[in-house]
Amino acid sequence: MASVSASDVKQIVVACEAGMGSSVMVARQLAKQLKSQEITVAHSPVNQLAETPHQIVLVHRGLSARAKQAVPDSVVIIFDMFLGDLNIAKLVGALQNGDTISDG
């Protein structure tokens, strides 16, 4: 199980199938929520995740196995709904509270 301290998080990547649409919406929403934390939020196709290291990868459940395989040392947070997902809310809360974020 991978983990990272909230104070060490500088970027979150929202992984998606093709790099457009719903993942962009999630990335924008997350960036707005984390603006005061000075954390950048990007999106990337899941098949390009291994090209650069990532601390936290946020990914829809349907792509989670591919994301975990691509970045096995990163914290991979899985969500089910593009809006109002509890796991995304928990991630935001942990980052705002300075907690340790773990996958699994």
Essential attributes:
alpha/beta, 104 residues, globular, four-stranded parallel sheet, 3 helices, Rossmann fold, single chain, two-stranded antiparallel sheet
Provide a descriptive summary of the structure in words.
The structure is a single chain. The chain is of the alpha/beta class and 104 residues long. The chain has one domain: Rossmann fold, CATH 3.40.50. It has helices at 22-33, 64-70, 86-97; strands spanning 3-5, 11-16, 40-45, 56-60, 75-79, 100-102. It has a four-stranded parallel sheet with strand order 3-2-4-5, with helices on both faces. Strands 1-6 form a two-stranded antiparallel ribbon. The longest helix is centred in the N-terminal third of the chain and has 12 residues, at 22-33.
Which secondary structure elements does this structure contain, and how are they paired or packed?
Elements: E1 3-5, E2 11-16, H1 22-33, E3 40-45, E4 56-60, H2 64-70, E5 75-79, H3 86-97, E6 100-102
Parallel strand pairs: 2-3, 2-4, 4-5
Antiparallel strand pairs: 1-6
